[in-house]
Write a structure and sequence with these properties.
alpha+beta
Length: 122
């Protein structure tokens, strides 16, 4: 009987722990981040967003991989949070006021942003 209880105990503990921790959803968001400062900014700041558990920026693929608690957030909120940092997120453009506050290397033309069109003078 003792052996049965010893074998049953780990199963009960595992069941209890799995009920406590949320199931994670994984989201991939296309972005315009291309330098190490972009990676640092996104990976650091996104962890402060409600429901975001993990963030990894893949510069080669221009993707942000985000693990979220699906009960606390969704893909639209994740895109909005990335935009508020000054980066594009799929079809959501960057918040330009936030973009101006980014380091110079992140604001350069060709850093994922379309080239500025010259103003026409009369």
């Amino acid at each position: 009987m003792k052996r049965f209880l010893l074998l049953l105990l780990p199963l009960l503990i595992a069941a209890r722990l799995s009920a406590q921790y949320p199931k994670l959803a994984y989201i991939d968001v296309r972005t315009n981040a291309v330098c190490d400062m972009c990676v640092k900014t996104i990976e650091t700041e996104m962890l402060y967003e409600k429901g975001v558990k993990e963030v990894h920026v893949d510069l080669e693929a221009n993707l942000i991989h985000v693990a979220v608690d699906a009960k606390k957030t969704n893909v639209e909120k994740v895109r909005a949070a990335i935009s508020k940092l000054g980066y594009s997120a799929d079809d959501v453009g960057p918040n330009m006021a936030a973009r101006e506050k980014l380091p110079d290397c992140c604001k350069k033309e060709g850093c994922g942003m379309p080239p500025a069109t010259p103003e026409l003078k009369n």
